[in-house]
Write a structure and sequence with these properties.
Length: about 110
């Protein structure tokens, strides 16, 4: 049966019963048995935030090639190093041959 495209479609829901488990129950070997070797080669993506700019949609639409956008950070200010959008360190932009690089200058303080 086809739904009318002008009317919203609401799928029917079913109630399911789940078996309750205690959080401490579990047998066998732990996933990470004291060694982080299992995750050493997992790839993650870090990003570096140099700065931000507030622009209107009109300004954005009027930008042309070679337009310069002024960022809110100073040229020598530390940059944020982010993992999944969260700042994990700060650093300084450097040149590494023909590429940009980041020299880590600040790591989070360990919580005691």
């Amino acid at each position: 049966m086809m739904n009318n495209p002008t009317e919203p479609f609401f799928p029917s829901a079913q109630v399911i019963e789940l078996t309750g488990l205690d959080a401490h129950i579990g047998n066998g070997q732990p996933i990470l048995s004291g060694s982080l070797e299992a995750i050493q080669r997992v790839k993650i993506k870090l990003s570096v935030r140099v700065g931000e700019a507030d622009v209107s949609v009109g300004d954005l639409l009027n930008m042309k090639e070679e337009h310069v956008i002024r960022l809110d950070s100073l040229a020598d200010a530390p940059v944020d190093i982010l993992l999944e959008g969260q700042v994990v360190a700060r650093g300084q932009l450097v040149a590494v041959e023909d590429n940009f690089g980041v020299r880590i200058t600040e790591l989070p303080k360990a919580k005691l």
